[in-house]
Write a structure and sequence with these properties.
heterotrimer, A mainly alpha, B mainly alpha, C mainly alpha, A: mainly alpha, Helix Hairpins, 3 helices, 79% helix, B: mainly alpha, three-stranded mixed β-sheet, two-stranded antiparallel ribbon, 29 helices
Amino acid sequence: MVPVMYYVILSAILFIIGALGVLIRRNAIVVFMSIELMLNAANLAFVAFARQYAATSGQLFVFFVMTVAAAEVAVGLALIVAIFKTKASINVDQINTLKG
Amino acid sequence: MLLSEATNAGGNFSLVPLVVFFPLIGLLLNIIFGGRLGEKAIGWLASLASGLAFGVAVLLGISLIGSHGAGVTVPFLDWITIGSLHLQWAFRVDTLSVTMMLVVGGVGTLIHIYAIGYMHEDVRHNGDPGRYRRFFVFFNLFIAAMMVLVSADNYLMLFVGWEGVGLCSYLLIGFWYDKGKDGIGNAIAGKKAFITNRIGDFGFLVASFLMFKFFQPLAEGGVFSFDFDSVAAIAPKVASPVILAITLFMLLGVAGKSAQLPLFVWLPDAMAGPTPVSALIHAATMVTAGVYLVARSFAIYSLVPAAQNWVAIVGGVTALFAATIAVAQFDIKKVLAYSTISQLGFMVAAVGMGAFVAGMFHLVTHAFFKALLFLSAGSVIQGMEHGHHAVEHDPLLRRKMKQNERLGSTHHFDPQDMRNMGGLRHRMKTTYWVYLAGALALAGIVPWAGFWSKDEILAEALHLNPAVYWLLTIAAFFTAFYMGRQVIMVFFGEPRSEPAAQAHENPPIMTVPLVILALLSTFGGFLNLPFIHTFTHWIEYTIHPAAEAAEAGAEAAAHAGPWYMWGGLNLIVAGLSTLLALIAIALAWMIYTRRVEALKSLPAARRPDDPLRSMLGPVFTGMEHKWWVDELYEFLIIKPYVAISRFLAEVIDWKFWHDFFHDTIIAGGYRGLAWIFANPIDLGVIDGIANGLAEGVRGLAAQARRIQTGFVRNYALSVFVGVVLIISYLVFQLR
Amino acid sequence: MTVQLILFFILAIVAVLTAVGMLVSKNAVYAALYLILNFAAVAVFYLLLNAPFLAVAQVTVYAGAIMVLFLFVIMLLGAEKLGQSQVQAWQRPLAIGLGLILAAEMVYILVSGAGGLVVASQGTTINPDFGSPANVGMELFTKYLLPFEVTSVLLLVAIVGAIVMTRVEKK
């Protein structure tokens, strides 16, 4: 039996890597994938704690997170496509229309 | 003086306000409805208004006879009540005021009727028939103002009328304000009359102020009302220098209104008004207001012989002075104007000496014959204009006129120049006869009106002031001479111009009033025949204290005097003046018929326009130029006055006050201050603060704006920083 | 060392490596492939944690549907690679530094158990059918029925939104 602590630590590491991906990468699609990674890390923590406390609710939360992530990906990729259509680029460093 | 309130007097006395209101109603009706009425209706309406006023005056006179001359005061309304001043608008009905009312109303009405015909021609001759109504409105206004003047019960109400007639005089002198020399000659004449009168009015006002200052403390109950009775009652209690000052200032007013030296210069120029105006205002009524004022103030004049002396001397000198000028005038109306000044001198001298009755008597008879003379002169002028009109429309006559024209006056024909007249007695018979009556009355020939009144003045003068007597006697001689000259130049001899030859008589509407006035001029003197003295007794109901002594003497003389006193008539004085008048007329006849005939042998270029000119030389020139009084005033008063005014206006007011004080100091200082406020303070400090604030905020914002890069990664990073900080906090918190 | 522990470590290394690989790979397609691998590793963790239903869902939904969609878009746009343009050059080191701080903090919290966050090092005893599809389904359609239905609405909205967003405007 693997200690839950290990899973949580792994989850934290994955989350930070995902966060770094969001902060470092310029490709909008990769940024998106990094977000998925962060969600995944969170899911892993959910499942680990569900196992520890023997609560099915934790697993159901993961289920909902997956659904939301799917919806988010659908809308997010649609946005990227729309942006690409006008800007011909998905480099987030070239998109600063909201600059003050 | 037995004055009682109207309430317990005869009912007719209470009618007195109507003498003012009838003319007022007449002028209001003419103002409101005159536009729809024809000329005839306007004229007759105005005449009716004046005639009704005369009718009221007659009723008042009858009432006075009924009350044996006892006058009344008719209070009408309270006028001004301020502290110790209580002025009433009250009418005074006594023999003096009713006499004036009768003269003003009677002569006024006749002149109104005459003017119906005269103005009909005049407005057409001057090319503006629209002013017909205006003339009668002014005329009625004048009657109303004059009635206020003569019916006043106090000095200030009298002053209202005094100013009212002055205004009418101004309006009517300038009636053809767009005519005359340079198109403003008449307006200037009106202005001159007004300003000269203002100098006199200044005297009147100062006299009133003094009266209030010194009479008020002595008045009963401390409330002074300016009415004649209380003034007469208080006057003896006032220091005589004050009375002297009041009377002399009043004399200045008299000199202004009655055209005495030194303020007479306006009256000749006042002839610019239409002839009925000259007759009514500047001969018969308004100019006698000064005489009336002195007569009315007899109570205070009697207190100061020095003032009386001054008045008498002013009158006497004016009488002679103006008479000499009248000798050398060529304008038919100017002769009469100077004659009027001269005759006013007679009246002023009379009232000055204390011969109030004689002065008033002469005032009345003079009103008759001078109105007659002016109106007749108007008739002559209009006859000449008719003749001129006929000539203008007849080429043959026009050529003839050009050939016969005197040198120097070919351009403009002057229908008032006596040198253009002559021989009119054949063409204008009625005018000739009435003119003759007026001239004889003025010259003082028995039994015409002027003889009786002038003789009375002379007799009183001999008794009271011999120096003035001689002045007046010589003036009377000149009077007869210039009237003879005028009559001969106008009516005798051959016509000296084509228009004179073509002149013709005027319609009855003008000649009938002339005839009536001629009758009055002829028989008016019988008002005061020797032995009977109707007029004297009549007036003495009102004026007696001063005249008492003189008249008592005269009365006594009438019964027990030396041989030459005949019923109150001094036969020596009468004889001398009549003799002088006859000599003067004969002299005039010699000069202006014989001498003119003799001069006809001379070539036209060297023939003098007046035989007297060659006989008297520079003296004639002096008389012709009115002894250069106008020029003297121009030089002594007007030029320096204008210079001072110019200095005040251009240097003091414009240069100093405007340019220097206002522009430089006030405006400049203000501008400088404003500049300081605007530039360094407002633009520099205040704007600096405001702009600095704005710049600071803007700079801060520009810095803050840089946070908003628009890069989504930066935003994510800032969120991440936040997360890290929160976690750090938790770490340290939970430790 | 039990088999499970060995398996865990191997998979943990795989998961971390694939995550790092996704982070550093220049090509977006590679990144997607790394991520699929990562998701697969995580799916195995779910199995280890008695969540078979989620493990299957992870493979089908995440590694299958979502990642295929990613790849599809990458290919569609032809945006596998981006040119060099370090506009925000300072962002990277800062982000890495912050990430390290965060990692340190997390580890500290987890290890020290500060704030009562107790993570049991030993697993608790559980029912054999814990996390079975039957149980999960029972829980989902009874206790979480409303959230479930809301989720379906959410998906519908997402579909509509995606279509509207990518649709070509007809002139």
